[in-house]
């Protein structure tokens, strides 16, 4: 009987033990470490139930608190406080806190979020040599990210978002060969993205948004496992990043990217989210982005993408959001984005042919595209001989400008003298030896300088007498004026029958060439204030001269940029671009503003001089514009610089070329 009871007792006990869960007894030292952490954190709500009797390894995990143990040691510690928790009190010591944390040497995961931790991240964190995941999101850490983190050779995930870390993105991240996630969002990091990140073969996520980073990105094509690149809210650019084909999320929003989107992006078949909004992108929109096999979110708003949309374009059926707003798109919205489509579509402030949302007129998009050089004017293919001829014409255009200007100035002065000689009893002081007026002798320097243009390879020209010009202009008939306001007397055709008709190659890119060689003069330069009232007339003549200089500046602006100028806004915009390019370091930006044919044929120094003259001629205040004489002297200097650059000899029998020291100082350099 007793034997049966004994056997029954052991069977019952065994059954009970089977249903008792297996527990891990935590080392006493690690239990005390957790209680110390509770105290240093100020006993926040998430851990305020901990006591000396808490079974830490068997607490129910929650989204705010998780502890994982293995063989009497803590391997994972997740503590998350309330969102937007304030910094811990002033007596909090970040050094003491991490001195306590590193007493958990077997930690593989350490996640301490929104706990109000503040101070520089201590270097002693490197003692957690087993650490694989480090998450210190949403605290108040500041200073540089310590290099000692690079000693955590098992680290695969580094999340330091929403802190105040400063300095650069660590170059030493490349020393962590197992890194798959680097997330440093919303800090105060600056400088460029280090080139060394290219070596992180296992990298899948790189998130650097909301910092102060700038410059172009390294070539990330070697990061074949990269799936997410988040660079939002920085100053990166201008070149589009070079990436591998596995990227699924690409966020470039609110940066300084200004080049076009390369066609290779159309082959990113895993791409799900693409946001390039609020940049300076130009060039054609890639319709293929709408039909990428994985795309669900596409945002190109706030750029200058061009192109015509068509109703029959195809879209991915899984598209959820498409934002095309504030670009230069024309045509019709694709039918796959209209009707019963469940896609959220935004397309305001384009030039689409629709009454929906706010659209600009077609001319707005075209003019804006032309203004930034997105839509090049069509050029016909020409033979090699024609190209040589056009380039030769370009090289000589500066000299042609000087020639015409000097001719008109000489005619004007001669005409003024003739009128003065008709007035009684005005007396001229004459040269005792030959009877030539001293005024005319002083103007002879313009004739001698004009003759030097022969050294530039410009075609021979003939001088016209005053009588011939009077006949051609109907005795300087004032009805030829097109306007006399401050904006200027626009150029008109004064076609004269002087038997001087030459054949020149026509080029759409340089209307002014025809202007100079076939007799199309700016009226203000040909008919200068031919009244007779003396004092008032002198002041009026000076005023008109300044208007003529402004108009001449517009002509130079068209020559330099190779763009048609039809409005005052065209003048102001192109002038501002030239002004900025002159101040830029190096010649690259300057030359990017120049008509390609002129850019190939002319030296940078010559172009820069003409650009400076042009900008000065277009000064808003008439008093700040140079005189006609100053313009001519500077243009001739530019022509001779160009000739020297070509390896020719611009010297004539009359002397050496003009040097900058001989020019009016106000025109030698841009003031």
TrEMBL record:
PROSITE patterns: LRR. Its main location: membrane. It is a single-pass membrane protein. PANTHER family: LRR RECEPTOR-LIKE SERINE/THREONINE-PROTEIN KINASE-RELATED, PROTEIN KINASE DOMAIN-CONTAINING PROTEIN. Keywords: Glycoprotein, Kinase, Leucine-rich repeat, Membrane, Receptor, Repeat, Signal, Transferase, Transmembrane, Transmembrane helix. Residues 1-26 form the signal peptide. The keyword Transferase applies. Pfam families: LRR_1, LRR_14. Residues 650-671 have a biased composition (Low complexity). One of its GO terms (cellular component) is membrane. Residues 646-671 are annotated as: Disordered. GO terms for molecular function: kinase activity; receptor serine/threonine kinase binding. It is found in: Membrane. It comes from Acorus gramineus. It comes from the Eukaryota. The chain crosses the membrane at residues 387-412. InterPro entries: Kinase-like_dom_sf, Leu-rich_rpt, LRR_dom_sf, LRR_R13L4/SHOC2-like, Plant_LRR-RLKs. Residues 100-305 form the Disease resistance R13L4/SHOC-2-like LRR domain. This is Inactive leucine-rich repeat receptor-like protein kinase.
């Amino acid at each position: 009987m007793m034997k049966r009871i004994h056997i029954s007792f052991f069977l019952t006990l065994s059954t009970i033990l089977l249903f008792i869960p297996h527990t891990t007894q935590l080392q006493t030292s690690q239990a005390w470490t957790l209680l110390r952490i509770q105290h240093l954190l100020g006993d926040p709500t998430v851990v305020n139930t901990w006591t000396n009797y808490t079974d830490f390894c068997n607490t129910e995990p929650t989204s705010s608190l998780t502890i994982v143990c293995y063989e009497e040691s803590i391997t994972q510690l997740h503590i998350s406080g309330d969102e937007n928790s304030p910094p811990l009190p002033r007596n909090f010591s970040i050094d003491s806190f991490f001195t306590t944390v590193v007493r958990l040497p077997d930690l593989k995961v350490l996640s301490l979020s929104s706990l109000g931790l503040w101070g520089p991240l201590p270097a002693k964190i490197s003692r957690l040599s087993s650490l694989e995941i480090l998450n210190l999101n949403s605290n108040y850490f500041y200073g540089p990210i310590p290099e000692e983190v690079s000693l955590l050779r098992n680290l695969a995930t580094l999340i330091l978002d929403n802190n105040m870390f400063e300095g650069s993105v660590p170059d030493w991240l490349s020393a962590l060969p197992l890194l798959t996630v680097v997330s440093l969002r919303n800090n105060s990091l600056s400088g460029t993205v280090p080139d060394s990140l290219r070596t992180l073969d296992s990298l899948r996520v790189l998130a650097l948004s909301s910092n102060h980073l700038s410059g172009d990105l390294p070539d990330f094509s070697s990061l074949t496992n990269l799936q997410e690149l988040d660079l939002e809210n920085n100053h990166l650019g201008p070149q589009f990043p070079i990436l591998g084909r596995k990227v699924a999320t690409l966020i470039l929003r609110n940066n300084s990217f200004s080049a076009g989107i390369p066609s290779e992006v159309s082959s990113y078949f895993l791409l799900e989210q693409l946001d390039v909004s609020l940049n300076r992108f130009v060039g054609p929109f890639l319709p293929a982005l709408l039909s990428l096999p994985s795309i669900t979110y596409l945002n190109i708003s706030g750029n200058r993408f061009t192109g015509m949309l068509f109703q029959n374009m195809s879209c991915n059926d899984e598209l959820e959001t498409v934002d095309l707003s504030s670009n230069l798109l024309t045509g019709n919205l694709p039918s796959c984005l209209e009707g019963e489509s469940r896609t959220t579509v935004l397309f305001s402030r384009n030039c689409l042919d629709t009454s929906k949302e706010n659209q600009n007129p077609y001319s707005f998009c075209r003019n804006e595209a032309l203004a930034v050089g997105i839509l090049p004017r069509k050029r016909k293919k020409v033979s090699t001989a024609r190209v040589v001829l056009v380039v030769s014409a370009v090289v000589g255009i500066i000299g042609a400008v000087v020639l015409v200007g000097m001719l008109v100035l000489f005619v004007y002065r001669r005409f003024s003298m003739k009128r003065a000689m008709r007035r009684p009893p005005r007396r001229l002081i004459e040269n005792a030896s030959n009877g030539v007026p001293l005024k005319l002798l002083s103007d002879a320097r313009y004739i001698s300088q004009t003759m030097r243009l022969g050294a530039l390879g410009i075609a021979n020209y003939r001088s016209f007498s005053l009588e011939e010009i009077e006949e051609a202009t109907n005795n300087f008939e004032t009805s030829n004026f097109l306007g006399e306001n401050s904006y200027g007397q626009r150029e008109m055709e004064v076609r004269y029958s002087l038997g001087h008709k030459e054949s020149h190659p026509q080029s759409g890119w340089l209307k002014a060439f025809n202007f100079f060689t076939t007799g199309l003069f700016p009226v203000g330069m040909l008919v200068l204030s031919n009244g007779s009232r003396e004092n008032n007339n002198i002041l009026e003549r000076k005023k008109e001269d300044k208007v003529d200089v402004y108009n001449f500046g517009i002509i130079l602006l068209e020559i330099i940029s190779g763009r048609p100028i039809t409005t005052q806004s065209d003048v102001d915009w192109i002038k501002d671009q030239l002004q900025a390019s002159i101040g830029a370091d190096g010649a690259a930006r300057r030359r990017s503003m120049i008509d390609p044919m002129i850019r190939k044929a002319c030296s940078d120094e010559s172009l820069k001089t003409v650009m400076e003259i042009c900008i000065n001629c277009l000064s808003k205040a008439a008093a700040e514009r140079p005189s006609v004489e100053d313009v001519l002297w500077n243009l001739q200097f530019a022509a001779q610089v160009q000739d020297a650059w070509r390896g020719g000899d611009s010297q004539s029998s009359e002397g050496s070329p003009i040097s900058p020291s001989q020019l009016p100082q106000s025109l030698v350099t841009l003031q």
